[in-house]
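Hey L., structure's done. Input below.
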Amino acid sequence: MFDMDRFAKVNQLSKDMKVEVDSVQECHPVVQGRSLPEVPITELSMPGGKKMRALKTMLTTACERNCHYCPFRSGRNMRRQTAKPEEMARTFIDYYEAGMVEGLFLSSGIIKGGVSTQDRLLDTADILRNKYMYRSYLHLKLMPGLDCFQCCLASAHLKTGTSSSARRALRSAVLRAFL
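Output:
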């Protein structure tokens, strides 16, 4: 089913990331024969001078913290947007399959603590790697307060599939072993 709201949501989350200075170009996507709102695509510089087009976006612009340097801090009056991990993964894959982007740069505001937020980022990566078999560039933000197991999963970019419940069980075992 074609869900225009999903594209609009990710589009807004990506536009909000334009606060950072980098090379951004607007792309006018056509997915499944439908014209979509323009999407900011970031050109990343890779090792060896290679350039890569990436969707630079966030799972949410909502944040419980009020860090004064951050454009998404809780005290700033702005429209907030949140995408579910499946929405983000499916929308990215649609852009990837349309040839608009080659990679994903994914960050997020912090909601319900760093561990919970990191779990949603990891869930998105897991969906991309294991459901959609995406094997290209994936940059995941590491959230303040994440646990050591989440850091290991993020560094491996979830090349081996683990479900959310399996990650929670494994995290508990890892933490018991190290605490």
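Residues 4-178 form one domain. The chain is about 40% helix and 20% strand.

-- N.
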